[in-house]
Specification:
Layout (H helix, E strand, L loop, with lengths): L3 H19 L2 H4 L3 E5 L2 E5 L5 E7 L2 E5 L4 H14 L4 E5 L5 H4 L2 H5 L4 E5 H9 L10 E3 L3 E6 L2 E7 L9 E5 L4 E4 L18 H13 L4 E4 L13 H24 L6 H4 L11 H18 L10
Parallel strand pairs: 4-5, 5-6, 6-7, 11-12
Antiparallel strand pairs: 1-2, 2-3, 3-4, 8-9, 9-10, 10-11
The structure holds zinc ion.
The site of zinc ion has 6 residues, from loops.
Length: 301
């Protein structure tokens, strides 16, 4: 196990590098962008995008990512305001999103995650991860700061644990991690996604009232300005097309284990990682459809 870990880390870093190398040079210089009044997106590399909201009473941060990212974001926030950081929200449990919380705890902020994510983070604390100061349970919780409201929506199983979709109803801006990755195929073998529940969740996101969506991963040209409902609809369409394509091949009599090699979805050929990840995406559909949905867990009582 101890020998495997560094190797796995190298591969994950390689995957990140492959994606990074495709980001254009001009986008790499982007750091902080004001996308609506007092609402900013932030990135260090174009691959992980956070959001922060400046209010009269202090600052709210959405997605700490890791310590290096969080420190750079704090420095950017300090160029805009000297108001205290009050809340730092984690979208879900995964190490690559919910690390770096200590940077904001040190600023006196309260770090917050859904109870499901919290429990996992306690049991599986990553090296750069800090247990959130606060957790919340159920399907919905609202926070208010300096007249700005942020709604936390837990839509049930979809990706990871405690996945929270954030909505700022006054400005109609949402922040979405991992559930939508515009202009890019789902990550490799689509890890830790319950595919059908993911589709149900995307449908529910489409019912929400927002005009602008900030995605933690976004390979569109306007990534720092955020996207829209159209991106959510396209993501849902991709997953539906992926499964429909799989079943169409099965119906034709194609050996299921050859489907990942033969199935193409040319409609998405311009999406980043189409050549590299489509086959892995199809393997995931194959295993899901043979085994039944996973991961799965009972609804908390
Ligand atoms: Zn994740």
């Amino acid at each position: 196990m101890t020998r495997l870990k560094p190797t796995l880390m190298r591969y994950l870093m390689l995957a990140t590098l492959v994606v990074s190398s495709l980001a254009s040079a001009q986008e790499k210089n982007l750091k902080t962008t004001e996308i609506a009044d007092n609402i900013y997106t932030f990135t260090t590399d174009g691959e992980y995008i956070s959001m922060f909201v400046v209010t009269k009473a202090g600052v709210m941060v959405l997605e700490t990512i890791n310590s290096s990212h969080a420190k750079s974001m704090l420095a950017e926030i300090r160029k805009i305001t000297d108001k205290p950081i009050i809340y730092a929200f984690h979208s879900h449990n995964h190490w690559d999103h919910a690390s770096g919380g200590q940077v904001f705890l040190d600023e006196g902020a309260t770090t917050i995650a859904h109870a499901e994510a919290y429990a996992w983070m306690v049991a599986n604390t990553g090296r750069d991860m800090t247990i959130p100061a606060q957790s919340w349970a159920g399907k919905r919780k609202d926070y208010q700061l300096g007249g700005t409201k942020v709604e936390l929506h837990y839509l049930g199983m979809n990706h990871g644990l405690g996945m929270t979709v954030f909505l700022l109803p006054q400005s109609k801006v949402t922040y979405i991690a991992d559930l939508v990755t515009p202009n890019r195929l789902p990550f490799t073998i689509v890890p830790d996604f319950n595919i059908r529940e993911w589709e149900r969740s995307l449908d529910e996101v489409l019912q929400m009232d927002f005009d602008k969506a900030v995605f933690s991963h976004n390979e569109s040209k306007n990534r720092m300005a955020g996207g829209s409902k159209e991106d959510v609809a396209l993501q849902l369409q991709f997953v539906q097309d992926l499964r429909a394509g799989f079943y169409a091949e099965l119906k034709k009599g194609t050996n299921p284990f050859l489907i990942p090699k033969v199935l193409k979805l040319p409609k998405y050929k311009d999406w980043l990682m189409y050549d590299e990840w489509l086959e892995m995406n199809i393997w995931r559909i194959l295993s899901d459809e043979f085994l039944g949905p996973y991961p799965w867990r009972p609804e908390p009582s």
